[in-house]
Amino acid sequence: EPLRRRASSASVPAVGASVEGARRDRLGSYSGPTSVSRQRVESLRKKRPLFPWFGLDIGGTLVKLVYFEPKDITAEEEEEEVESLKSIRKYLTSNVAYGSTGIRDVHLELKDLTLCGRKGNLHFIRFPTHDMPAFIQMGRDKNFSSLHTVFCATGGGAYKFEQDFLTIGDLQLCKLDELDCLIKGILYIDSVGFNGRSQCYYFENPADSEKCQKLPFDLKNPYPLLLVNIGSGVSILAVYSKDNYKRVTGTSLGGGTFFGLCCLLTGCTTFEEALEMASRGDSTKVDKLVRDIYGGDYERFGLPGWAVASSFGNMMSKEKREAVSKEDLARATLITITNNIGSIARMCALNENINQVVFVGNFLRINTIAMRLLAYALDYWSKGQLKALFSEHEGYFGAVGALLELLKIP
Amino acid sequence: MAECGASGSGSSGDSLDKSITLPPDEIFRNLENAKRFAIDIGGSLTKLAYYSTVQHKVAKVRSFDHSGKDTERDHEPPYEISVQEEITARLHFIKFENTYIEACLDFIKDHLVNTETKVIQATGGGAYKFKDLIEEKLRLNPWCSGWHFLFRNIPHEAFVYQKDSDPEFRFQTNHPHIFPYLLVNIGSGVSIVKVETEDRFEWVGGSSIGGGTFWGLGALLTKTKKFDELLHLASRGQHSNVDMLVRDVYGGAHQTLGLSGNLIASSFGKSATADQEFSKEDMAKSLLHMISNDIGQLACLHARLHSLDRVYFGGFFIRGHPVTMRTITYSINFFSKGEVQALFLRHEGYLGAIGAFLKGAEQDNPNQYSWGENYAGSSGLMSTSPELGPAQRARSGTFDLLEMDRLERPLVNLPLLLDPPSYVPDTVDLTDDALARKYWLTCFEEALDGVVKRAVASQPDSVDAAERAEKFRQKYWNKLQTLRQQPFAYGTLTVRSLLDTREHCLNEFNFPDPYSKVKQRENGVALRCFPGVVRSLDTLGWEERQLALVKGLLAGNVFDWGAKAVSEPWLVDSYSEWLQRLKGPPHKCALIFADNSGIDIILGVFPFVRELLLRGTEVILACNSGPALNDVTHGESLIVAERIAGMDPVVHSALREERLLLVQTGSSSPCLDLSRLDKGLAALVRERGADLVVIEGMGRAVHTNYHAALCCESLKLAVIKNAWLAERLGGRLFSVIFKYEVPAE
């Protein structure tokens, strides 16, 4: 028992999430657990942590979990594998949904990955943060604590749920800085690619639904990079090298705002539903456009007629309020939030003198409308100076970074 | 023929209430003489601007036509006073709720029907689309020109807003070096403009999340139709019920991480649930925070990109609403870490109307003149915060008035100010100093009876003097009460502004110069004493004479209050340095700001002037353009100088050779603002190379300019005629201030 306690003494990151401009220190290391089994001896010799290997990112809305499933388990190893470990592995890999809200993004699974000398697959799982108590309960039921493993977790929830993990699950978290994890995760995932394909991509002709193409982008010169992470809220980082980055700013108008407003305006209950409604709506009935005011482009300011002059501006009028559909409102909410993020990102890129902007975060999941709009807006307003880039594993980088910390992979 | 193009209603769609009775003659003042009109019908407010003339009485002085010197007798006054009618230009700006629009337009039409020269410029009205067009398209130009017009003419136009601090409003002193700055207009969308000079500005960006988003989205979320009601809802809500805060994400750990738990992590983040109801108030508050923060953040990003540290905000989203000024200020502080300042304008709501009006009135050249806010006719900045004094605002909250008088002469900075941007005329900021504020407000209240009596006494032949004086009393009393409640109503509250307000109210009721007869009598007496005083001064030795001259300046300054002797020792005493200086080479040219009529100007200032002239120093003697208390006016000074010249060859030849020049200050205040002085005076000061400035009297050297830094030598002289002030300065009643200052090399 005392050994496990020691195992979890990773230091709290020195700097909080919203402290801007701070350069990060590398995390302190933690000492691994010990055991008498051969596997454990082997692990120790290779300075490898014990299975299971998890990385956890507990955000404001979603929990992101990455799980490394070893595929090179020898018969000998399998024989020695404790029951609870086996049960976890089987449970996670044989299901694609967990309970009513947990989902494994099968299409994102990374196959035949080598991590710390072990070969296996990386699984990507998500569930809502409000189901965190159930998750902890499950850990208790499956007797996680007997595995003497280390749980590396990042995101605000690593702090919020730390006590619950300890008292209910008898598990101590190794809390990690979310921005460190994010950057580490992005760089790593980009380096391993996406099962032979490119991880990073961009849109060509984003405004033209006929000609619009999603094309791979080779991020061979990643620095400097503006990283815009759109979760419930938005964080914007300027990354100059692997270890040198700063948080430039952030905004509270993020994915949570889109979904929250959609719930209030349309009565929808899921993010998927909100996006589905948005895909069928027409925001120009809700927003007041430049052409609504000027009858066309406003050349003096260089404003095109299609630009939004006032988001929800038409809703000042009672008649127009009565004429819009829920789909229109969902679409307008999506356009408003997305345009605003694009606008702030563009200003940051200008101020930091950076011209490639990578947008990540779960707001972009199955959200082609937002991605294409970001791509178009960035290109248009910067007159082609700025490039919007996206990444296949959009919301999972923090969790990947946490896993890498567990494995001490630099 | 008058054409009334005003139509188009507010988008609130309320029916017009014609049953409301107005006191329109109190609102639409001087309408009979209105020359030019602009009307701007906005979403909920109508703004009206017109250019009119006011006829009021002025006291003029004129020398008797003496056929020979021997006609002068002891009982005879030195000059005659005549009261004449004078016509001056005044700009009227009125802002009222659209509810009253029909009643108001009817009233206006009725009063315009007989004139042929008036033009109504409808800048609002018409189709919905047209109204929007006006609102958005034309806003930028008028906004900028309106702003610069106010900025040039109203010294305390811009302020920073600090909630929970006393005072909430902190006014900026305007100076010509404000450029460049960022202007953020929050209408239905947001326009961000970089202003480099009065005519050079550039649209640098914008955002679609603005007042229209607050209104439109707010209406959808809360079913509340009116903008003001939405703001009212917001002011009562708790955004933390709707927003996801940092503490919601981090739990209690935010403290150990050094994060503020109250920061919003995700706006409306908590509303992402189907099984919870949210109150209208909470949603409105969350929306207000979301929009204000977003605008503040974008403004900061633009300010940083252009290296600007001041952002002026305007547009209907702001319009003096404490709740939006507060959230915008918070946001700017947060996102700029205190490096960028958010500023607001007292007359923000008028900018569009003023700008449009100025454009239409180009042939009257309003920008060629200096204008002054008329404190008597303007309603001042009212806090629209609902919890603040609702009883007070029965009508003033509905009808907001701004009146500006065209001044006879353009006003500019005194070229001798050491650092014009940092010059603040007033010694004590009563907005800031609650103790001093209470004292002075009470002091002016207590003095009111005396002023009323004096006013009545000054017009013995007038039948309605008592009635007008009573109206004056009521008006000024109300102003004082308003200022007790809202000291920031007319900008920074100072002894000067209290004095000026009283002068404006007196003028309003045709008491242009209550002291004219007193001054006439005292000037007569003093003139008769002049030869004797000069003779006795000339018998003194040089050093004795210098002290006697200074004492004469001080004594004259105190005589009007009947004081026999000044208090010893002098409270501020740099006389020996001054005496030492006099032993050196003469000054090239002295600029003297005179104070009172009678003994002060004739037996104090003129002997001093004479001594300077004899030393070879040229003298510019600056007196008020218009009357204020018993201060000597430029007109009176001309007659006095002429009379003295008749008795004294030194003054005579100096006048003839233009070594002694009498000029006007451009002011009608008992105090002195060195940043608003007559352009001709400034030119003369430059031309003659003035190297000494003498300021005398409480109003000019203590209430104002006590701390004024000049780039040449200066003398500030006064006797403290107020026990409270004397005590505050560490002295006794009738303490002497003799402040001789030499600028650091």
Descriptive key words:
heterodimer, A: 410 residues, alpha+beta, Nucleotidyltransferase, domain 5, 3 domains, eight-stranded mixed β-sheet, seven-stranded mixed β-sheet, elongated, disordered N terminus, B: 745 residues, alpha/beta, 4 domains, 24 strands, 39% helix, 19% strand, globular, manganese (chain B), metal ion binding (chain B)
Polypeptide structure, described:
The complex is a heterodimer of chains A (410) and B (745). Chain A is α+β, with helices and mostly antiparallel strands and 410 residues long. Chain A folds into three domains: 47-191 and 398-407, Nucleotidyltransferase, domain 5, CATH 3.30.420.510; 200-281 and 325-391, Nucleotidyltransferase, domain 5 (2-Layer Sandwich), CATH 3.30.420; 287-323, no CATH class. Chain A is built from 15 helices and 17 strands. Chain A has helices spanning 2-7, 38-45, 75-80, 83-94, 132-141, 156-160, 162-167, 178-192, 255-266, 271-280, 290-294, 318-323, 326-352, 368-381, 397-406, and strands spanning 53-58, 62-70, 97-98, 102-104, 110-115, 118-128, 151-154, 173-176, 200-204, 213-216, 225-230, 234-239, 245-251, 288-289, 308-310, 356-360, 387-391. In chain A, the strands form three sheets. In chain A, strands 1, 2, 3, 4, 5, 6, 7 and 8 form an eight-stranded mixed β-sheet that branches. A seven-stranded mixed β-sheet of chain A has the order 10-9-17-16-11-12-13, with helices on both faces. Chain A has a two-stranded antiparallel ribbon with strand order 14-15. In chain A, helix 8 packs across helix 15. The longest helix of chain A is centred in the last third of the chain and has 27 residues, at 326-352. Chain A starts with a helix and ends with a helix. Chain B has four domains: 31-64 and 75-153 and 353-407, no CATH class; 158-242 and 278-345, Nucleotidyltransferase, domain 5 (2-Layer Sandwich); 431-493, no CATH class; 515-741, 3-Layer(aba) Sandwich (Rossmann fold), CATH 3.40.50. Chain B starts with 23 loop residues before the first helix and ends with a strand. In chain B, the strands form five sheets. A seven-stranded mixed β-sheet of chain B has the order 6-5-13-12-7-8-9, with helices on both faces. Chain B has 22 helices and 24 strands. In chain B, helix 5 packs antiparallel against helix 8 (280-305), helix 6 crosses helix 8 and helix 12 packs antiparallel against helix 13. Helix content of chain B is 39%, strand content 19%. In chain B, helix 21 links the parallel strand 22 (692-696) and strand 23 (713-719). The radius of gyration of chain B is 29 Å and the shape is globular. With 745 residues, chain B is an alpha/beta fold. Chains A and B meet through helix 6, helix 9, helix 11, strand 15 and helix 13 of A and helix 3, strand 9, helix 5, helix 7 and strand 11 of B.
